[in-house]
Amino acid sequence: MKSNRRNFLLLAACSLAIAACGSGSDKPAGEKVTAAKVDGAIEKPALKLGFIKLTDMAPLAIAKEKGFFAEEGLNVTLEPQANWKVLLDGVIGGQLDGAHMLAGQPLAATIGYGTKADLIAPLSLDLNGNAITLSNAVYSKIEPTLKKGADGKVEHPISAAALKPVIAEYKASGKTFKMGMVFPVSTHNYELRYWLAAGGVNPGYYTPGDVGGTVGAEAQLSVTPPPQMPATMEAGTIDGYCVGEPWNQAAVQKKIGVPVITDDQIWKKNPEKVLGLKKEFADKYPATTAALLRAIIKAQQWLDADNGKNRAEAVKILAQPNYVGADPAVIGASMTGKFTFAPGDTRDAPDFNIFFRDFAGYPYYSDAVWYLTQMRRWGQIAEDKDDQWYFDTAKSVYRPDLYLAAANKLAADGVIPKESIPDTDGYKGEQSGFIDGVTYNGKAPNAYLAKFTIGLKKGQTVSAAGVK
Question: Where in the sequence is the signal peptide annotated (predicted)?
Fold first, then answer.
């Protein structure tokens, strides 16, 4: 009997190891993701979660203010953080139990880029939510060249190709064209780079040990914390930036800049923030993790309910100083299905903030693979990796099994619709909707990288001297 039990445990352990590491085949095997088995009482009811003052932290604020954390037996404190590095260090060091985190942060930490730690992303907080804003001075140079519609308004999306004469003018006068983003492994960095490269502007490459990413750059990118973006641009330190809301709308309100493109125009329904946890936390407190996810999923559903009927209330909550702390009008300018590009130019933007619909909360492996391809494209991953490495890394960090454990329980209890939970192998399939027309298949990362004109190719590395 003991021998049989031992054999069963060994077989189970081997099965789990194979599932965790991948089959070694060229592509993921395609099995449906199954929910983790979670049972028992909450192990740690009092939690502290970190966030940055951005509107896409909304699921955490709503879970707190609407009582969803309390319903799940959790007493959660939400604590704003000074910047993304402080937030990351807080989770790794245990001062925070989890956080509203950049999608690239758990991946970068796991592969040892910047800081080494085993982090996971068991839930995606939202889709879209960022924009790119240019200073008035720069926009005034490109505006006459932009195509106008019958109403006299500029047609969108605006290509970064419009910046090429400005960059050339700067170079001729000995100046550097500079733009801000929030963190080296942020969605904002990759979206800004993607937009620039799609318009024929090289945003530069990273070398090992270098977090500047400026080798060969025609437009130089640097890190600025989100709330400081408008003031930094107004001071002339940067000529534009990519950031989440409400900091693009703040530039419009202050009349210091013009948003030129939203991120859903760069990549339709792109993944944005995640809930980041230490793997050790989820392993040690599985019932707590499941309860935490259930509360956030409830909040996500509330945010998207009935075509956004709750968004006005959400704006009031987010405007509180303990959350985003910005003018409700500024937050509402992008949070309520509209987006203001300039005074008098407000356009419908129903997909700008998605929290629940379109499977927004599900942490797809293919989303993780996309971030990893961009790390490789710009040199943050210094050398080639085979496809299997991308699959295995994605599977070790993005945890749809934990998401399903929480979501399936909510569906069984009638809290969320069963059809709001995808039945998938964790990959979205081939995706279009990119500004450059390039399609993306998460099951073919190296083939995807080969499609780009600007970006590292197979066998290429970067040094201070350039790409070789």
Answer: 1-19
